[in-house]
Design brief:
Layout (H helix, E strand, L loop, with lengths): L1 E10 L4 H11 L6 E6 L5 E10 L1 H13 L3 E6 L5 E12 L2 H13 L3 E6 L2 E8 L1 H10 L4 E7 L3 E4 L7
Antiparallel strand pairs: 1-3, 1-4, 2-3, 5-7, 5-8, 5-9, 6-7
Length: 163
């Protein structure tokens, strides 16, 4: 199974998210990750949708997305020609000694500690999927109380003209 990241420019109005997710549901496709936010122009929103499937299924998803009336454009965000990031918050149970170990890992990964309590730390980390997964694996030795992920968001890289 392949992963494909779709970047959709859509009308910023009520019901658009329902129509896009409904298209996936009606055809039996699963959404692995979904993020939505308004763009620099408040008339439009950008959706980043991640799906897995074979080549035929992923091509069909793209065609079906383009048929939706609220969808303006569909870009495929490919590795190397786009920038994709995800944000996670992790609340980790930690005593004084464990806090020092966690702080060392946070520094290495250029993450941030956003909340400190007597028995826990909350960490914010942003990056590509590999960085996020590596950090989560290193946290495996600690008691993770809760974890939340935003899902992938991204944009195509800028294009340079050859001289």
């Amino acid at each position: 199974m392949k992963r494909r990241v779709f970047s959709l420019l859509v009308e910023n109005r009520a019901g658009v998210l329902g129509r896009v997710s409904g298209m996936f549901s009606r055809r039996g496709y699963n959404i692995d990750s979904l993020t939505v936010g308004v763009t620099e122009n408040p008339e439009f929103s950008r959706m980043t949708v991640v799906a897995y499937g074979d080549e035929l299924t992923l091509d069909q998803i793209e065609k079906q997305l383009l048929k939706l009336e609220d969808v303006i454009t569909v870009d495929i965000l490919r590795s190397g020609s786009s920038v994709c990031r995800e944000l996670i918050l992790i609340k980790v149970k930690a005593n004084r000694e464990e806090k020092q170990q966690i702080i060392s890992l946070v520094d290495v990964f250029r993450a941030n500690i956003v909340d400190v309590a007597p028995d826990s730390l909350m960490i914010e980390i942003t990056g590509n999927a590999g960085k996020i997964e590596s950090f989560i694996k290193l946290m495996d030795g600690f008691e993770i109380e809760s974890l939340v992920r935003t899902g992938i968001t991204g944009l195509p890289r800028g294009k340079f003209e050859e001289e």
